Amino acid sequence: MDIGSFWATNMILITCLSTSLETVEVKGFTGKQHEIPFLAYLIHYGKLIKTLSIDIDSHDIANTQIYFEKAQILKTIKPASKKIHIHIS
């Protein structure tokens, strides 16, 4: 299974995205092929999300800037929630 295309094309709406999910915390983000499509799915369908906090993997100092740039891509996705704040650190 191609997990990236799964989240990009999956039309199943997980119930918590429209009824209860308000906060998402991601720790150790590296921008791997499964992370970005999954978070894009949450942003696109998460009607109640107020906060998406992304902590970049700080153990791999040589690639920290690359991880940060990949996380920035998520700010270009049209969110379902008008109240969402995406924090990258």
UniProtKB/TrEMBL annotation:
<feature type="domain" description="FBD">
    <location>
        <begin position="14"/>
        <end position="54"/>
    </location>
</feature>
<feature type="signal peptide">
    <location>
        <begin position="1"/>
        <end position="23"/>
    </location>
</feature>
<dbReference type="InterPro" id="IPR006566">
    <property type="entry name" value="FBD"/>
</dbReference>
<dbReference type="Pfam" id="PF08387">
    <property type="entry name" value="FBD"/>
</dbReference>
<protein>
    <recommendedName>
        <fullName>FBD domain-containing protein</fullName>
    </recommendedName>
</protein>
<keyword id="KW-0732">Signal</keyword>
